[in-house]
Amino acid sequence: MDKKYLLDTEENKKFLEEIRKDLLEFGCQFPAVDGTCYYLGDDGTPWKEYNRETYATSRMVHVYTLGKYMGYKGSDRLIDSAVKGLMGSARDKKNGGWYSSLTPDGGHTENKLCYAHAFVILAGTGAVLAGHPKGEELLENALEIYDRYFWNEEVGMSCDTWNTEFTIMDSYRGLNANMHTVEAFLAAADVTGNEIYRERCGKIIKRVVGWASDNEWRIPEHYTSDWEPDMECNKENPDDQFKPYGATPGHGLEWARLIVQWALSTYKYDKEKVKAYITAAENLFERAIEDGWNSDGEPGIVYTTDWNGSPIVHDRMHWVLAEAINTAAVLYHITDNKKYYDDYADFMVYLDEKVLDHEKGSWFHQMDRNNVPNGTVWPGKPDLYHAIQSTLIPYYVPDLSIAVAVKEGKQYYK
Length: 414
What we know:
This protein is mostly helical. Helices cover 49% and strands 6% of the residues. It is built from 13 helices and 12 strands. It has helices spanning 10-26, 54-69, 75-87, 114-129, 135-149, 175-192, 196-213, 249-266, 271-292, 318-335, 338-355, 385-390, 402-408, and strands spanning 39-40, 46-47, 52-53, 101-102, 112-113, 151-152, 157-158, 161-162, 173-174, 222-223, 316-317, 366-367. The strands form 6 sheets. The chain has a two-stranded antiparallel ribbon. A hairpin with a 4-residue loop joins β6 (151-152) and β7 (157-158). The longest helix has 22 residues, at 271-292. The chain starts with 9 loop residues before the first helix and ends in a 6-residue tail after the last helix. The mean pLDDT is 97.
């Protein structure tokens, strides 16, 4: 096999560096006049007829913070633009918090999403790390709003959706927002030193591990207001962009990596406790790959399966591959199990042969079961966040948030 696909080789590092440079260049046209993030099309040009999503603007702060410390020259300007958007038009100055998205006609969507607010926290940590003059203010405001409206200390989980005025809470509860809350809280703990956010991650993770272990490591995604699993949610709309029916192998992969990060950073001197969570992470990874990878006879990881592991939505999403790459590398480095090394190589081959757009740049965001680019769920190429992280996480220490590790140069040495 070509060495560029093999973890811990100079050839693989160079391959990922080339991908990273392409991604950073691809995304540099994102800023709208107000600083928020345009939806990016197939070649990186803005599709201005689409809403400008707050989570996407937030991700751009994170992406170009990584870019700054990897030497991308335009990073400070792009970080400043996105922070301007988050401190300006994306923010609801009347009711507090952040609009989920801004519409092309100057309006906004009528809800407040936990998912978006988690990414504003992540953006705040990035802005602080990048030394932006508004970074501390953005992070403090994001944490204050999140603590007030989304975090439920008694339950140890976050709610999902409010109306714009923060007066009516939707009864839906979901793990996608909680997963990105874990990511954001880990970053907040690393950046601020306030360990309450890492402790909250533990509360979420312990419940997720319990739900997954009770369900053969297929994670129930959707819940009632009392946190009872709603296993039939969206059965009639199985490819919903944020609430798909059934199990989502990509989330099993992503949770596995976040669990490892939390356990290593929490139980630094308790190998037995770390071991228990690494075992849970391995179980999640193995279930996701067994159910999802090449499971319909074609390469790639299917988007969703039913509760017996049979594919429902066969399309392949780029973010799932990115998380597979990350988690395979992390698990190999902390277990020395060669299976993960081999999985990483398989994912790299698939990335190069099917998912990288060698003509227009970036990664195809969605492909059908035959690996033909498709746009029913993810048209265009609006997201850099998952892909850019997968060029870095494989080579940085697994117990730190990636932006902190990159800034501090905390690489993993095998």
